[in-house]
Amino acid sequence: MTTTSPLSEELKLRSGSVLKNRICKSAMNEAIATGKGGVVRQFEVLYRTWAEGGSGLLITGNIMVDKRHANEPLAVAVEDYDDFQLLELWVAGAKSKGGQIWAQLNHPGKQSPKFLNDQPLAPSAIPLASDMFIPPRELTESEISDIIRRFTTTALILKEAGFDGVQLHGAHGYLISQFLSPNHNKRNDQWGGSLENRMRFVKEIYASIREKVGEGFAIGIKLNSSDFQKGGFSQEESIEVCRHLDKMGIDLIEVSGGSWENPVNRRGEQKESTKKREAYFLEFSEQLKKNVSAPIMVTGGFRSQQAMEEAINSGSVDVVGLARPFVVDPNLANHLLTGTNYRSSVEPISTGIKKIDDMAIMEISWYTDQIRRMSEGLPPKTRVRGAFSAFKVLYNFWQRGQQVKRVRA
Q: Does domain 6-347 have CATH number 3.20.20.70?
């Protein structure tokens, strides 16, 4: 069955490669790596399943550039060629239906839980407002250079394994985001102070990677529209950073927002315009489109085919990013491309236990458990079963932490 949906249109990137459609499975932490961050065969199974779903682009969950610094249990870390054959299998599964796979590269900085990291690093020695994290130590100049080198090394290894591109995680309060934020970066050297200095870190990472991988490999970024914090990284600053990266040749900008301290509120009050258009960051995306020529992707909130198509047709976005909808329905893109009036069944999770429903860990862990099921060749579950599901996902989260502790002991 054919379709004239704008979601089916190809998109040529600056790197020269072509996305076969405008649908992206955006990044979600898979939490299926080994306790030391090693790649496992299940990644091939999982990403082959998503590839068969029909999307033009699959972006992996966080891949750490330094295994000593992880954002959560069982995240992949790529520092060397130890898992190269498994990386190649991962790529083979992901590209089996003609789509692309990009690796999301990350260093969490101080946003690394204390049960994983007792020596977190940050632009400045400013602690997070939680006992979950140990106060960080300020990075030295040589350590900053080493992290830039690590991003570059990881990107080059992944290119050689067959990945089509990488996405720098510059959002959600991780290290790149920490450098950009005037609340978290209080340095008085070339890496802090003015916006020009605060954006130096991400620009140096981009330039270093581009020099090593060449022009035919895609480099994108996930960047906050703002931190949603008083005195933090603002929308005006975000646009300016995007303008600089645009001039440098960035392939795709994914718009996001918030951090661990100030997450996007998916349960609370939303503007009526946001409810109608579904996606959280469309208004900012429209502002950004006036300032950059790089393609823009928005992830977060899209549920109906109608809203996705309207976003593409209006020019608000170039690529529609979907995360949790791909977990409950891995065949999602095929539905959108061959059906009419498709709507995802994803809704905020409710167990009937208010304290648990208000915990972000419940929402994240339930979807993580469905990802694990798919990685084992099982279909995802589509409904939360009240207190039973709550107990199961919280137990699984605890179990992942214990697995890491045993390895680190």
A: yes
